[in-house]
Structures are given as structure tokens and as C-alpha cells.
From TrEMBL:
GO terms for molecular function: transmembrane transporter activity. Signal peptide: none annotated. This is Major facilitator superfamily (MFS) profile domain-containing protein. GO terms for cellular component: plasma membrane. It comes from Laodelphax striatellus (Small brown planthopper). The lineage of its organism: Eukaryota, Metazoa, Ecdysozoa, Arthropoda, Hexapoda.
Amino acid sequence: MFVVFKKSVFRQCLAAFGGSLTAMMAGTSYGWITPILIGLLGPKSEVPMTNDQSSWIISFIELGNLFSPIPAGLLVDKWGRKPCLLITGPIYIVSWVLVFATRSVNTLYLVRILQGVGMGIVYTVLPMYLGEIASPDIRGALSTFLDAMCNTGILFEYCVGPFVSYPSLALISAGVPVFFLLIFPFMPESPYFLLMQNREKAAADSLKWLRGKTDASLVEKELLAMKGSVDEEMKMKSTRRWRDLVATRVERRALLIAQVVTVSKSLSGIGAVVSYASQTFAKTADADETISLSPDLFTIIMGLTIWVVTFVAAVAVDRCGRRPLLIISSLGCSVFMLATGTYYFLDEMTSIDVDNYSIVPFSTISAYCIIFSLGLGPLVPTLQAELFPSNTRGLASGLTSVTDTIASLICMKMYEVIADNVGTFLNYWCFGVFCALGTVAMYFIVPETKGKTFHEIQMDLSRKELPKEKLVMKNLGKTTTNNVQMYS
């Protein structure tokens, strides 16, 4: 039984890894600008540009991200999760070829928009794919693959970027989408999507592969439970797709929770912190001669820290639960952002000499990244995949990605504007206040979804109790039921 269980988990992890290579592609495009930003603004720049132009190059990825989530959310229920993810491979390959070939700022604007389009597809479709291929007991862990692989891509750029040339970095980065296109075509489609298309045999084959060909009767029971849930949810589907998002109490609550959590994540400032890390650390290090580490090395350490902690979150999410991790993470982010802002306020707005304490912003920003990666980072895609019923999951995921994009775009573009016209301190104080407000909001509205099936989550959102004969009994982390367990 143990061997069968391990085989089942391995296959689900393999499919999740294959799909999450798209998140690594997004991470490489997100982190690419950080190690080369100082060089691009320097006298020997491969692509000479101003500070304002560099801020647009950083921000335009979010502009591209604004265009694709809604179309992806609509097409994902027609074409499937797998084909929509496969589209991103050629998109990223083309973008890296353009980076390799161009020395024009305007072309880089186009590249960043193109990469943003790919990112919008990834952040709309991948949470659905990960949530739908996973069994309930490991859904939280598998959903963190998105954030873990995105951070892997960012760390990859941090580690490679400072040591290779501008065109070489583009070619190396293009290797990730090529690897993805070699691996992912062999992974299964989501059984939920196949059931939505009335392709029961294909859904059964997909589920058997994902569960490692365990007891056929157990797979059949799970498939029947999935089908019952999908049929029930699809009955509520109307031709007015947008109205479906607020048609019932469940949809309204799910949409509110998803938007609040997503905005809290984006306005915590993670996009700006990651994108401007090298520049921020360089400015601080220049003021303190006692610091021997280079800004690039500090950035690598920060990226490595985020990467490691994300895997800790993957273990913790199905043990500690989503709700406590989110609340603790948001509160911790608030504390460390306010502390960072206070340091820069003393440095920029007072006569107090803080040059000998420049280790403070390195420490507080690193601590912020650690606590962010324990909750706010990896768990937003998890909730995005869990909260919505089958009939609105695609469109709701697209809308949530748009919300994320708008909030991130505002943060990333305004960071440079605020830093130049008011002071860097105000950015971090704003991030800290937003995190504090998000903590309060999440405390009151976010439910716990740990270990629950999609059906149970929908029942919780509607504030109804499950029938007694379908209550799931928990025993040592294993789920059993008296009748057919609802794996929807």
C-alpha cells in the first residue's frame, strides 16, 4: 500500500513539475532584469536607457500580463488546460530570441509585453491544472509548485546573470521553454476538464495514470464522485459567463476572498522588491564601506532564501493549513516592510547617520522575503484553484490574474516615481500598511480549505453542512468515508 501511495504521489508530482516549468519560464522573465539593470543603466550598456525607460521595461511585463488572463480564462474551458499551457512555450522562445537579437529599448518594451502575455496565461491556467490533478491530501503541496518553480526561475537569473554577457543570458534563458516543450506533451490533461467535455474514458485514463494505477475500484469511485460534482456545477452554468461569477452566494464569497488575498499579495510590494533588489542593495552598500559582499551576491542570497523557504511552505501548507500561514505571513510582511521604511526614513529625511547600520535593510528585506514565501507567495494560487466551482473556475482565475496584474503594475511603476520624488522610505511604509490591512481582511473572510475536497469547500462557502453520510473522517492524515468519498 505504501509503495502504491508513493507511486501515486510521484506521478502527480511529475505532472505538476512538467506543468510548472511554465512558472519557471515566467520566473526567468521576471528575474532577468534584476542582475542586468545596473549594467543597462551604466556607461557601457548593451542597450543604453534612462531611469524612466528602465522602470517601464520592468513594468511592461505586467502590462502584457493584463491582456491574456481573461482570454485564457475563456479558452481554458474550450481548449483544455494542457494546450493553453503549451502555447506559452513558443511565446517565451520568441521573446528570448528578440532579446538576443535586439539592442533597442522599444523592442525590449515589446519583449516585456510578450513575456507578460505568457505570464498571464501561466498564472491563470496553471493553478487550475495543479489543483485538478491533485488528490485532496496533497493539493496544497502541489499548488505551491507554481511559486516554487517561479522562484527557481528568478534564482536562476540571479545566479547566472551577473557572470555572462547580455546575449548569452538570453540564449541560456531560452533553454527553459525548450525543455518544457520536450517534457510537458507527455503529461496528462486534467480529468476535470475531460469530464466537463463529457470525455469519460479519457478522464478515467488520466486519473488512472495520475493515481499510479491503484485499485481500479477506488479510481472508479473517485471518477464517479468527480463526475457527479462536475455535472452539478455545470448545471449552474449559463451563457452569460460574467454573471456566473456573482450568480450565487458561493461565487460571490469565492470571488471576494480571491480578490482580497490577491491584492494583499501584490500590494505587499514583492514585485518591486524583487525587481529593484540589485539597485537597492547597490545604493545601500555604497554608503557602508564595512560591507564586503557585492550587491549581486546579496541578491543571489535573497533569491536562494526565497527558493528554499518556498519548499518549506510546500510541506507546511497541508499540515498547518492555509489560513494561519496566510495571516502570519501577511502580518510578518507588514512588520518587516515598516522596519525597512523606517531605516530609509532616517537615512533620507533626518540628519541621523545610519551608514554603519546598512545591514538593517538587507536583514529586514530578507526576512520579508522569507515570511512572504511561507504564505502570501505560494498560497494565493492554491486558493485560486480551490475556491471556485467548475462552471466559473476558468473565468474567475482569469479575473483574479488581472487583479494581480493591475496591483503589481501600480507597485512596480510607482516605486521609482515615489523613490525619486519623495523617498524610498515611503514605498516600504506603503507596503507595510497594505500588508497590515490585508491581515485584518484575511482574518475575517478567509476560510480553511486544508484537506478538503472541492465539494466540501463549496459547501463551506455556502455555509451548509455536509450530509452525515458524506462527512469525511480524518485519521492520521488519511481520509476515509462511510460511503463514496466526494473527490470533487
